[in-house]
């Protein structure tokens, strides 16, 4: 036991509330400080939580609250732009391949559950600096207030302030070569139901993902673009213009993309702009400060694992603080448990990104090889290291686990 009694958790996204709730379970009083106000999630859109993420939530009893706001997706079907079925992941027997959830609902569910366990969550608190001493750390916020605790956990996302406070020379995000958009149709469609499954169409110019059901249809697009764009730059283009450009990307494909995009309300278009990852952050902790979630290990959305990795890290950091005798040992153990796994996931996500933005020769090869590749990838044993990963929160961190 590290004798840590209090923790400041910076960031009320996914990793922050999970870590704070898990810390409460091990007797640490945690407070979450989120820069946004309670009604915004900054980005929007749907994300999919993988089975390993749901398992990690269950390990600290947070799964029930999340189940209430998400819908199980039984399988993922991969199709070519010519309409050919390439592969299917998942089966009724194996359970859902993922749980789809609106990001805002997830944030609210996690923060609500953390609060129900006695975690204080303060909104409108943007961290701008820290003061450190041998046995405590003080966070300074943009509104002039401050807070002090035994440790500070940076769960403040891919553009983390805590990361640069730990290591001013830390690398920043890397552009994946893709712009991201999403939406939901508001006009009637003639599209056949996917019966809750997610369909991914590898089109000629971009990949179109959608889920069409009686009660809800949603979609997202990863559009290759050499030019990176911030969210502000992308939004400045205008929703109606993006809707037109996105629909145009899919005119040569045999898929419902054009119909679904055109039936969506431009006012509800989710414009994310360029998507980034963070392949290697050399320093995850210094003194009494540590990084979890995207601040340490952001993966491209193509991996479908960013949220789940953030949850796993939130759970593991609490477990290490419970079981190791000192803060430096707990932080080192956490890094040992997490770094190899998250960096492997990031590398896999990068490979998927590259398959989404090939040149003409790459595209021809991709279309030729995709059916065989997909048959291999779709084998459950190939994905077990990612999806079947389980954290036994009740078990003490063992030397064998640390390798
Ligand atoms: C388009 C897109 C699609 C995605 N799809 C998926 C998917 O399908 N599945 C999946 O698992 N993952 C997906 N991801 C990734 C996933 O969203 C992230 O990995 C996950 O949100 C990381 O959680 P986090 O808590 O570490 O960071 P965030 O969720 O980014 O939360 C960080 C929080 O910190 C706050 N903050 C930032 N700076 C400060 C500060 N200085 N002071 C106080 N608060 C601060 C922010 O306001 C934010 O609320 C997607 C990402 C994108 C961009």
Automatic annotation (TrEMBL):
Keyword entries, A-Z: Monooxygenase, Oxidoreductase
UniProt source species: Actinocrispum wychmicini
> A Gene Ontology molecular-function term?
FAD binding
Keyword Oxidoreductase set for record: yes
| UniProt domain FAD-binding: residue ranges | 7-347
Which superkingdom is the protein from? Answer: Bacteria
- Tell me which InterPro entries the record gives: FAD-bd (IPR002938), FAD-dep_Monooxygenase_BioMet (IPR050493), FAD/NAD-bd_sf (IPR036188)
The protein's name is 2-polyprenyl-6-methoxyphenol hydroxylase-like FAD-dependent oxidoreductase
């Amino acid at each position: 036991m590290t004798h840590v009694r209090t923790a400041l958790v910076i960031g009320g996204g996914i990793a922050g509330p999970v870590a704070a709730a898990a810390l409460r379970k091990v007797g640490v009083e945690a407070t979450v400080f989120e820069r946004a106000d309670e009604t915004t999630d900054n980005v929007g859109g749907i994300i999919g939580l993988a089975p390993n993420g749901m398992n990690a939530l269950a390990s600290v009893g947070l799964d029930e609250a999340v189940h209430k706001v998400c819908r199980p997706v039984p399988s993922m079907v991969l199709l070519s732009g010519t309409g050919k079925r390439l592969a299917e992941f998942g089966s009724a027997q194996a359970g859902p391949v993922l749980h789809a959830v609106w990001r805002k609902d997830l944030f609210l569910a996690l923060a609500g559950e953390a609060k129900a366990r006695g975690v204080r969550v303060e909104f409108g608190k943007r961290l701008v600096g820290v003061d450190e001493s041998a046995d405590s750390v003080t966070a300074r916020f943009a509104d002039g207030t401050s807070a002090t605790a035994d440790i500070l956990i940076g769960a403040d996302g891919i553009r983390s302030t805590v990361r640069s406070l730990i290591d001013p020379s830390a690398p920043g995000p890397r552009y994946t070569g893709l712009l991201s958009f999403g939406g939901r149709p508001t006009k009637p469609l003639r599209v056949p139901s996917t019966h809750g499954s997610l369909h991914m169409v590898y089109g000629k110019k971009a990949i179109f993902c959608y889920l069409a059901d009686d009660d809800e249809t949603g979609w997202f697009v990863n559009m290759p673009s050499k030019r990176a764009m911030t969210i502000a730059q992308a939004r400045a283009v205008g929703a109606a213009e993006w809707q037109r450009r996105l629909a145009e990307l899919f005119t040569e494909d045999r898929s419902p993309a054009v119909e679904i995009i055109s039936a969506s309300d431009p006012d509800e278009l989710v414009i994310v702009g360029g998507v980034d990852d963070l392949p290697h952050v050399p320093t995850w902790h210094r003194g009494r400060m540590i990084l979890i979630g995207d601040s340490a290990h952001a993966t491209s959305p193509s991996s479908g694992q960013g949220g789940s990795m953030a949850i796993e890290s939130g759970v593991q950091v609490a477990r290490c603080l419970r079981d190791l005798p000192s803060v430096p040992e707990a932080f080192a153990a956490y890094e040992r448990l997490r770094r190899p796994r998250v960096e492997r996931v990031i590398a896999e996500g990068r490979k998927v990104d590259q398959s989404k933005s090939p040149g003409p020769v790459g595209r021809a090869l991709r279309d030729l090889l995709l059916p065989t590749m997909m048959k291999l990838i779709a084998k459950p044993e190939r994905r077990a290291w990612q999806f079947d990963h389980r954290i036994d929160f009740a078990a003490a961190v063992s030397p064998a686990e640390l390798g």
